[in-house]
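URGENT: need a sanity check before tomorrow's submission.

F., can you look over the Protein CrdC record below? I want to be sure the sequence and structure line up before it goes out.
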Amino acid sequence: MAPAGPVRGMLLCHAGPHRLAFLAHEVLSITSPGEEDAASARLAFHASAGASRVLVATSGGAVGVDALEIDAEAHPLLPAPPVAVSASGGSLRGFVLARGVLWPLLGLADFERFLRRRMGGAA
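Structure tokens as predicted:
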């Protein structure tokens, strides 16, 4: 499968030692924990919940992350294996190579729904 076109405008995030990327246009706002009912991205990695920043999706859902950086550069989107897409509840869109490492690019609203379903609604 050929790589998809380049993506530009991402938030490169950390959930504990794990990396996650989201498209900036999917983020309505960035808030502090406690301002939103956020699902912690750490829970996807079987770690304890926690966050220092909360990404609020245009759909209204929210995901907490430990750290984030804005990346405005264009990066090619590499395809994700179907098994990984399925394991992520359909939220994994592919991978981007940024700052010398691969970042999984996730749909913010889809990832939030995946976290909520995975944790039985109590993320």
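My own read: The CA atoms of residues 4 and 77 lie 5 Å apart. The chain has one domain: 4-118. If you see anything odd, call me.
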